[in-house]
Amino acid sequence: MAKESNKNITATDVGMLMERQRKEWLLLRRNLETLRNAKKEEIPLNVSAGVVSKRLLNYRKGSLSANLTAIANGERPCFLCHKARPEEQEYLEWGDYEILVNPYPADEYHYTIVNRDHVPQSIVGRVADMVELARMLKDECIFYNGAKCGASAPDHMHFQAITANAVRNFISKSEDRDKLIETEAGSVSVPKAGASPFGYFIIDIKGSNDVNDLFNRVVDSLPAHYGEEPMMNVLAFNAGESVRVVVIPRRKHRPDIYGADDGKMLVSPASLEMAGMFLTSRDSDFMRLDGDMACEIYREVAYSDQEFNEFISRLTR
């Protein structure tokens, strides 16, 4: 949970950090140039799920192929800790966190927001931090990849932030959702049947601290895994006068087709993929990924309609 001290920076300060890093950090400049020229296509789906796209970024291979066993066994230095970061990488302090520019960007503006201490990836007690960050960075989406839901550094607590346009599929109108709970603090709703290839919860809240009760109620409706927090991706961004928190329950980390061998694909779904932005690092994967494959990946890593309805029943009873 972020401390009250050192939270006087603004979105302007964060933007200036990005500009400095673009001027001074050769790796970042090169990767941004690659991003601007990268292949990108929309993927049509057979559901009214909004826009789904794919992008080819060869420098993302390290993230997409992260060896979680090696990480869990401490067999590689933590690249989010000070001693292992590139010399060129600056940061801004914000409470318990340090805001860094991501040198392997998924979009023009991509930040990593790192806990100052080397503690495991867990959102317990931290969702209000996400909301507060979203209020400060009004044009960004703050997202959290669970330790087994796309985090390439599950041993070090961090959020990420990316241009809010990346999550436009979650900016739905009230008539496209079924409201489950409404309180003075906010509301919880879900997309109407057939409007998404997977189920997710939408929490619209008014203040940073207002999110805790509604978020905890949603999380408590999900299955825990061996005493750990439920597998999930969480996103927070501004939606008019409120902040919207999207909780995507996950049943599986990677699809069966995942792998580097022939016939396999290096597609490891995290928050961005669930939001509709598939990142690939190999041309063969980019070419192979179509609407049917995207829907199959969603079916594997997300819960079925029947399972998701069970979560709704737990939440509302």
Write a structural description:
The protein is an alpha+beta fold and about 325 residues long. It is built from ten helices and 13 strands. The protein is globular, with a radius of gyration of 19 Å.
**Oligomerization category of the chains in this entry:** single chain
- Considering DSSP H and I runs of 4 or more, what fraction of the residues is helical? 25-40%
Rg calculated over all Cα atoms: 19 Å
The number of E-state strands comes to 13
Q: With helices defined by DSSP (H or I, 4 residues minimum), what is the helix count?
A: 10
Mind describing the biggest β-sheet?
A: 10 strands, antiparallel
Distance between the termini: 30 Å
Summary, kept brief:
By secondary structure, this protein is of the alpha+beta class. It has helices at residues 11-24, 26-36, 61-64, 68-72, 127-136, 211-220, 271-274, 283-288, 291-301, 305-316; strands at residues 40-42, 53-56, 92-94, 97-101, 110-115, 140-145, 158-163, 177-182, 186-191, 201-205, 232-239, 242-249, 277-280.
Layout of helices and strands, plus pairs?
Elements: H1 11-24, H2 26-36, E1 40-42, E2 53-56, H3 61-64, H4 68-72, E3 92-94, E4 97-101, E5 110-115, H5 127-136, E6 140-145, E7 158-163, E8 177-182, E9 186-191, E10 201-205, H6 211-220, E11 232-239, E12 242-249, H7 271-274, E13 277-280, H8 283-288, H9 291-301, H10 305-316
Parallel strand pairs: 2-13
Antiparallel strand pairs: 1-2, 3-4, 4-5, 5-7, 6-7, 6-11, 8-9, 9-10, 10-12, 11-12
